[in-house]
Specification:
The protein has about 100 residues and is an alpha+beta fold. It is built from 3 helices and 4 strands; from the N terminus they run βαββααβ.
């Protein structure tokens, strides 16, 4: 399993209606990607203009196909609304490969 994290800051005075339309379209496109397990989106509590998305993929090749395909257009369009974009790719820890949860 592979996790992709993309963060950005919305530009000051962003057109929220246009950004919302882009986000809806981008989310729908992402959800159709082969190998996608999960998609999450977050806004910063202390800085609401900060955005983070997390995608979870079955394999790194699934992620790569998405990044080399649909993401190219999505990222180009996102640059009209965002600055300070950063991408990270994470894999499981060899020490704790599966999620742990407290006992109830």
């Amino acid at each position: 399993m592979v996790e992709g994290h993309v963060t950005w800051d919305l530009v000051p005075n962003v057109d929220l209606k246009a950004y919302g339309a882009w986000a809806q379209k981008a989310t729908e496109t992402t959800l159709k990607a082969p190998g996608l397990i999960e998609f999450r989106a977050h806004r910063g509590f202390m800085a609401p203009a900060q955005v983070r998305t997390t995608t979870v993929w079955q394999s790194i090749s699934d992620w790569a196909k998405f990044i080399e395909g649909p993401w190219q257009q999505m990222e180009t369009e996102l640059r009209a609304f965002a600055v300070n974009m950063k991408s990270e790719l994470w894999g499981p820890s060899p020490v704790v490969p599966d999620p742990l949860r407290p006992r109830k």
